[in-house]
Amino acid sequence: MIKFLDLERITHSFEPGLSEAVNRVVTSGWYLQGRENEKFEREYSEYIGVSHTVGCANGLDALTLILRGYKELGVMQDGDEVLVPSNTYIASMLAISENGLVPVLVEPDMETLQISPANIEKCITNKTKALMIVHLYGKCAYVNEIGDACRRYGLKLIEDNAQAHGCMFEDRRTGSLGDAAGHSFYPGKNLGALGDGGAVTTNDGTLANTVRRLANYGSDRKYVFDSLGRNSRLDEIQAAVLSLKLKRLDADNSRRREIASRYGNEVSNPLIRIPDGIKVAGKDNVYHLYPILCEQRDRLQEYLKEEGIQTLIHYPIPPHQQKCYARKGILSIPAPLLVSETIHQQELSLPISPVMTDDEVSYVILKLNLFK
Fold first, then answer.
1. CA 297, 300, 306, 312 torsion: positive or negative?
2. Which run of H or E residues covers position 252?
3. 3-state secondary structure of 261
4. Are 62 and 175 in contact (CB under 8 A)?
5. At 221, phi and psi to the nearest 5?
6. What are the Cα distances from residue 333, in Å, to 40, 100, 105, 153, 329?
7. pLDDT tens per residue across span 299-323
8. E strands along the chain, which residues?
9. Is the pLDDT of residue 261 over 90?
10. Is the pTM here over 0.90, yes or no?
11. What are phi and psi of 322, to 5 degrees?
């Protein structure tokens, strides 16, 4: 069986350094808010190209804390609107809803599978305070038109960088393009921990300090609570693991692009569609996922399973059709979401990881081209 993501093989590829890093923390006797966090935050800031990194418990918390920070600073208030792509993972929207803000769903572009710049301006109202772009599948969602629109309408630009560690826009990394960015270090990510983990990156020192306080029970000083905060911290073991893995991230992303390039060039089955924005394997994509589209998606997935190839669907039910968003008024849908619904009906993610062998890639391509 070719696994969709062989985490056991990936983890083993970091040995013995991984075990040494974990053992270093275990024997130190210091497990939270210590030197490993300070080291990782410094290294990640340098890598992303920002002034501040604040570690937290997971990617959802990272996005939630950014928006909560803006509310704490008076930039946003209950009922304000945040534009977000309609085909994102639900965490992007949950962060907005949890803060008493309204997600406004914007259709993606079918060729990039990213939020459509042409649709953004149509969705802006006098309540719109921010745009959250999602670098979905590992593909950079930012284009200059998005930055121009945010400046023109005075919107905060927030990046959901959960799937795009190391991705580039020209000579800058995603996570440094907007006012703030949320990152997830879930084990399956390109930069993955051994459990949950997340971070906020920003060049705004006031926001960074606010996020750090909110993530630490609302406290800057021990037993003094200036905000209604929460407990959301990156533990020392995860920080040590991430520091180790960060050193190999660019090389791992390069291997992902090699595999993606083969998929784009060698998959020739007319029943399978690879969007143009996915097919060209440039530095604006780190291929956390490799999405293809097929009108017979479910049959294709079953066929590949029978041939020993594991695939996943990202995501079978679009966020606006989930039961949690059924209540009227909890989100805004300015226009029919036909493109998003088509993507959710047809998307299938192929195996892709830095530890896949050339023979495994060849086998996947062979079976895709034989599907009929």
1. negative
2. helix 249-266
3. helix
4. no
5. -125, 145
6. 39, 17, 5, 20, 10
7. 999 999 999 999 999 999 999 999 9
8. 52-56, 81-85, 102-106, 128-134, 156-160, 168-169, 172-173, 180-184, 198-202, 219-221, 224-225, 290-293, 347-350
9. yes
10. yes
11. -75, 145
